[in-house]
Design goal:
The chain is mainly α. The chain contains four helices and no strands. The relative contact order is 0.17.
């Protein structure tokens, strides 16, 4: 007989994964600006769009990480595959958000 009392996935909240993804993406973007861009502490108009798109892309990556939790809980090769998918999709979304943000509206 099946035990229906065990949770199907890790009990980490959906909002927590979204916030983790958005904060990590924002940190990476700000680090890129200060290290690579020589940004002065003045807020330029062009920086507003990337400061919106990059955290949104990171939040979408956090959703993917959350959706991979049931697969990750199985352990073994399933856990390795879930982690690899999560990392690749997160990085692709981060790059897409960065490119869309830096390209800006035309």
């Amino acid at each position: 007989m099946a035990n229906y009392n065990t949770p199907l996935h890790h009990p980490v909240s959906f909002i927590r994964r979204i916030l983790q993804g958005a904060i990590l993406a924002t940190f990476v973007f700000v680090l890129f600006l200060f290290v690579g861009g020589g940004l002065r502490p003045v807020l330029y108009n062009w920086i507003v769009v990337p400061l919106v798109t990059v955290p949104l892309a990171g939040a979408a990556g956090g959703v993917v990480v959350y959706l991979m939790d049931p697969m990750r809980q199985r352990g073994g090769s399933q856990k390795l595959l879930a982690n690899a998918i999560s990392i690749v999709v997160y990085l692709l979304l981060l790059v897409a958000g960065f490119v869309m943000g830096m390209e800006g509206p035309r």
